[in-house]
Amino acid sequence: MADKSFTCARCGTCCCWPGYVRLRDGEAEKIAAFLEIPVEEFTDLYTELTHDRRNLTLIEHSGGRCIFYEEKPQGCVINVVKPQQCRDFPLNWNFPGWEKECRGFLGTK
Length: 109
Prior knowledge:
By secondary structure, the protein is of the alpha+beta class. Helices cover about 25% and strands about 10% of the residues.
């Protein structure tokens, strides 16, 4: 579990780790509205079914980087409407070794 004093440095480490970003009910619609596109277009362009076919997940660029993460200058393009899974990092979920890579945890900006 992360230190309760964790402050996100917006370094993008968690956005570049391979794996699912599962969308919860209503999140596709919220992101589509933010992008000003129909939800069907959003799901066609930016999501796929998980292997267990239970959820939609955001697609990844090669290497695992989230489709909505731009290194410079912006970071997360959908930050204001990012999925709950993203908001929950690292206090409610994390990946092995995250604390060695995450600048928010290390206290460096």
